[in-house]
Amino acid sequence: MTKVVIAGIGNVLLGDDGVGPFAIKELESQYDLPDNVEVAELGTPALDLPVRIGGSGAVILVDSAKFGGAAGDMRLFRKQEILRRPPRAHVDPIAPPLRESISLMESMGQMPRELLLIGMQGCRFEPGAGLSRPVRHCIPHIIDAVLRELRRLDLCYAPKASLKPRGFWWDSLRLRLISKTPLL
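Below the sequence we write its predicted structure tokens.
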């Protein structure tokens, strides 16, 4: 398989919207992945999404999504379903919908052969909030879904021999936002 991208989408400073970046950082801290697999934290992408993931053989996106479930519910959306009727992703008001980015890739001939969106229903999206308890408890399920997809794509991975202590770059920003400490 050619290039595979595992991308976390979302704003880590807006509570459950940060589930994508959080989950892929957890995945990256626990597993060694093949050289052709790129793990990317995309934040809240706009028109650059097709540039970042277009032309890849397979793309696995992890994002918060609104699909009528309870907080912490997870749902998988394959390319055909996204193209037919996309999930309503919880995105920043200035970001284009996921569907528009996917349509742009399709029209440019850059559509990945395989596309999976792992959507997690969130409940808390306030500035400075961390992940809600239901979403945080489902991170292992998201990682399992990513690993199942890698196996389906015949890609090998292995648990890391030693786990490094996790530290997320956004934690200090969140603390500053909550305490209203200047960023500079």
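The CA atoms of residues 122 and 158 lie 29 Å apart.
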